[in-house]
Write a structure and sequence with these properties.
mainly alpha, three-stranded antiparallel beta sheet, 324 residues, single chain
Length: 324
């Protein structure tokens, strides 16, 4: 959609995407040219002029004005194609999910990851935000820091549009909704706020300069020698991830035009799969005894199992067809 801007809207009640297409002026809109009056006829025998008689013109059939091809129809067709493509992403999502569960089970049982301080501080931060989020919904009917989330949401759209060599013409953030106007409403730009944990990225960028000069694991405890800096970082990381996760679920349930733009099914599969990949990265980086080699081995093993099951089903279906 190069050269044409589209509006990505976000909020508790998001509206339609795009602009209305106005009809082009057709031939039916132009006034017909006036015909000159008919000249009176002269009778050659008598030399008299016959009176002029008005002759009605035949009715001209009305023609519909020419219109541009609506961009909405094209988006609907593209959304259906993407939904079909999302169906083919389901095997990858299934294999990755089974591999992640197996990896997390090994880290929990064999390496006792759930008993480490890193896990508990991360879980504490996530639990604190979950309580605040649920309390805001119960008391006020909306979660806390809604305007802050909309600000982060819209700027995540903008950052991914800039990374795609796109242009952002407008960014608007209100109390309960917002939008940006960009000429690059691709699937990544549109769905980025739902799988890109921007608060976690900002937190890592804030702590990264200190970690370069002094490792957080070796830093002395602060706050009267009670809390190590690594625990603070993990607690804030858990809070930021819970912030991203809860708002993503809440906004999806509200029904967003971002998802409808590229097909609801395709969008949900992509959001789930990319979020699962991000959680996998967190697990491999933070859990002791868990390496990328171990995860890739799990992924390859479950891919082979899934392929064997699909092959047996296809052979059985072929045998049934031959028997019929």
């Amino acid at each position: 959609m190069e050269g044409r801007s589209a509006k990505l809207r976000t909020g508790a009640a998001s509206g339609a995407i795009g602009a209305h297409d106005e009809p082009l002026p057709g031939r039916a809109d132009r006034p017909a040219p006036a015909k000159p009056p008919a000249r009176p006829k002269r009778d050659k025998a008598s030399g008299r002029v016959s009176p002029r008689r008005e002759v009605a013109d035949p009715p001209v059939p009305k023609r519909e004005p020419a219109r541009r091809v609506s961009g909405l129809g094209r988006r609907v067709r593209v959304a259906w194609i993407k939904n079909i493509f999302g169906f083919f992403l389901l095997p990858l999502a299934w294999v990755w999910t089974v591999s992640f569960v197996g990896l997390f089970g090994k880290a929990t049982v064999h390496h006792r990851f759930w008993m480490t301080e890193d896990f508990w501080f991360f879980a504490l931060g996530g639990t604190l935000w979950l309580v605040a989020f649920s309390g805001g919904l119960y008391v006020k009917g909306q979660p806390p820091l809604l305007k802050w989330y909309i600000f982060v949401h819209e700027w995540t759209h903008a950052i991914w549009a800039f990374q795609s060599n796109g242009r952002v013409d407008e960014i608007q953030v209100n109390e309960d909704h917002g939008h940006i106007l960009t000429n690059k409403p691709t699937a990544l730009v549109t769905l980025a706020p739902y799988f890109y944990p921007a608060p976690c990225v900002v937190l890592i960028l804030l702590f990264a300069p200190f970690a370069l000069f002094y490792p957080l694991e070796e830093a002395p405890p602060i706050f009267w020698g009670l809390v190590p800096p690594m625990a603070i970082f993990l607690g804030l990381m858990g809070l930021c991830w819970s912030f991203h996760f809860t708002y993503t679920i809440w906004m999806i349930r509200k029904g967003q035009s971002d998802l409808r733009m590229h097909g609801n099914f395709f969008s949900l599969v992509v959001i789930y799969l990319v979020n699962l990949m991000v959680v996998t990265v967190f697990l491999v980086v933070s859990a002791a005894g868990v390496e990328w080699r171990t995860f890739l081995r799990e992924l390859l093993h479950h891919t082979e199992d899934f392929s064997d099951v699909v092959w047996r089903l296809l052979c059985h279906a072929w045998e049934l067809c031959l028997s019929v």
